[in-house]
Design brief:
With 420 residues, the chain is α+β, with helices and mostly antiparallel strands. It has helices at 2-30, 61-64, 67-77, 120-134, 166-170, 182-188, 197-206, 222-236, 240-249, 263-266, 283-288, 302-313, 326-332, 401-418; strands at 82-89, 92-103, 106-107, 114-115, 154-155, 161-162, 299-300, 317-318, 321-322, 349-350, 367-372, 376-381, 386-392. Strand 5 and strand 6 form a beta hairpin. It is globular.
Length: 420
């Protein structure tokens, strides 16, 4: 009898060990990255950020319930096809909900992968640049022409030449135009057999600089961050996606964030009206930069971006891993001296007063905000230790800017009112 019990117990132990090894194996398969050069099949849901009841972190859950009918109204109105909204308090996820359909007849889920458009600028490029500053490889006051040869400066009204600096690019005060279409580049380089990255970088280095109406004012420009992405690559000898994966995403366990998704990952992405799943919406990033660009191209989830926001709220550290130093994060929340008219910090928009994307109540001296053309946004408020992430698959032209700003602002107002 005792022998039979010993045998049975042994079988149970071995069965449990086997199940454990199988589970670990599945985990390893599902978490081998999301980039195009890996075999990633995300089959097991894994929450890397603690999900808690809003009331446990000082938020009124009844107030947050007002988010759902608001977003659903915008889905029905056609402002956005679908969305995921997340609210971070400290290092915890206090709210995450999905709205609309991933595709016809299939409900959206919180783990959906979105083309986050210009959120690429702060999450990848601004973070990478500031890491290089921390490591002594770069200075914000450094002239771009020292890194990218023949990078033209600009001339003032008295014909005095001014060099463009890294800080100018970071704060959108470089005098570069806002954008250039692939069609314009084709006209500029008619003899180019394979129009692409080289021609775009040449255009950015030499195109006409545009003086703003107000001295020191910013002109938001995708070209600034394409140039900054090139700076990161020049200094590190790595492609921008390689650098971001090794120095940002892997450190933060942002396993579902990448450029150029592989086929399996792309199947979990949400398409826009203009592009299929896993194909970046921005024309410059897609057609000129092969999907890896400083202005756009990143795909991510609400939870991954919540982790990034929590890192900023934590002074640059997430779960004991330092991505940025506390003084660097402090600098990122501060408009540089002499750049007040720009209303820009290092990679972000400062929402010092009422600003549509941050709403009427979360805006303040300690609030950062950035938006993306696909209807995405991140708002980070240090004063109240809170962040709001909105991801949608809006396409420019499907709804007015007023509509999407109305949604962003009202969601942030609801979150602000929930703070107790």
């Amino acid at each position: 009898m005792k022998e039979n019990m010993r045998v049975s117990l042994s079988l149970v132990v071995w069965a449990m060990l086997f199940i454990g090894f199988v589970a670990m194996g599945i985990y390893g398969i599902t978490r081998r990255g999301a980039g195009g050069d890996t075999e990633a099949v995300v089959a097991v849901a894994e929450h890397r950020m603690a999900r808690v009841a809003p009331d446990s972190v000082g938020l009124d859950g009844r107030d947050l319930e007002r988010i759902a009918p608001l977003v659903e109204e915008h889905v029905e109105r056609g402002t956005i096809p679908a969305a995921v909204v997340a609210v971070v308090r400290g290092d915890k996820l206090a709210y995450i909900e999905a709205f609309g359909e991933r595709c016809e007849g299939v409900a959206m889920t919180p783990d959906a992968r979105f083309d986050v458009a210009s959120l690429t600028k702060p999450v990848v490029v601004a973070t990478a640049v500031m890491q290089l500053v921390e490591r002594g490889a770069l200075r914000l006051s450094e002239r771009v022409e020292r890194i990218i040869p023949d990078f033209d400066g600009w001339r003032d009204e008295e014909d005095r030449r001014h060099a463009i600096t890294i800080l100018d690019l970071m704060t959108h005060t470089s005098k570069l135009p806002s954008y250039v279409s692939p069609e314009r580049l084709q006209r500029e380089y008619p003899d180019s057999a394979t129009l692409g990255r080289e021609e775009l970088m040449d255009y950015i280095a030499h195109c006409e600089r545009v003086l703003p109406d107000e001295e020191g004012a910013s002109r938001y420009s995708c070209l600034n961050y394409i140039a900054l992405g090139a700076v990161v690559e020049k200094i590190t000898g790595m492609t921008l996606d390689e650098y971001a994966r090794e120095n940002i995403f892997e450190l933060l366990a942002m396993h579902d964030t990448c450029y150029t998704p592989c086929e399996e990952y792309a199947s979990l992405c949400v398409s826009t009206a203009a592009t299929p799943c896993g194909v970046v919406n921005d024309p410059l990033a897609r057609e000129m930069m092969g999907g890896v660009s400083g202005n756009a191209g990143l795909f991510s989830t609400a939870e991954d971006l919540a982790i990034y926001a929590a890192m900023l709220l934590g002074g640059g550290t997430w779960q004991g891993v330092e991505v940025l130093s506390p003084l660097t994060v402090e600098a990122m929340f501060t408009i540089p001296h002499g750049y007040d008219a720009s209303e820009r910090t290092l990679g972000w928009r400062a929402a010092r007063s009422v600003y549509v994307a941050a709403g009427d109540l979360l805006a303040g001296d300690d609030t950062l905000v950035h938006t993306g053309a696909t209807g995405t946004s991140i708002v980070v408020n240090r004063e109240h230790d809170i962040a709001v992430i909105i991801l949608t698959n809006r396409t420019l032209g499907t709804a007015t800017a007023t509509d999407i700003h109305d949604l962003r602002s009202k969601v942030c107002n609801i979150v602000a009112a929930a703070i107790k």
